[in-house]
Every structure is written in structure tokens, then in C-alpha cells.
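SAMPLE LOG
Freezer: B-3
Tube label: C17
Construct: single chain, 93 aa
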Amino acid sequence: MLMEFTHFEAGPIVRELAGERNVYFLLPPRTAAGYAWPAGARALSRSGRSAAFVGIPALHGLTWPLDWRSRPTADVPFVEPGLLHEMVGRAVR
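STRUCTURE (predicted):
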């Protein structure tokens, strides 16, 4: 849904190809915590007590088990957080 809405220029989206098969949307720093994400979605962010990280695949070549669903570009270096929040809200209704 997000990919189609953005004409396939959604910004950086990383997917796991093994295990739990999570999908990670890379947002601008310090923006994810500003939203109340619905059940099933969670913000991985740095806090005063802990830090979170997401593996990033190589831009070119294979970096199994990670892959790009959508690559970052100079025009779209991050996923737009407000749009992602809206799309996630629609998907879990």
C-alpha cells in the first residue's frame, strides 16, 4: 500500500528474508517516538535506558538475509513518518 501510494519511491524499507521476516521502515532520527503505533507495530529507537539497531543491507549486491524492499534515494532518504503511521493504521483496521 505504501509503495503504491508513493509511486514506488517510499524511502528505505528493509526486509528480512529468513526467521520472523520483519520489515523495517527507516524514519528520520527522533521521529518514530512521536507516534502512537498500533499493536503489531513498534518503534525501535534509542532511549535513555537502551538502544536499538536494525541491520542495513548493502546498496548493491547480496546481503542475505536482509534485502531492500525500497532503497533510499537522494530525493527520499527516509520514509515519511506521518504517511507510514497513516498507512499502518489503515492496514490494521
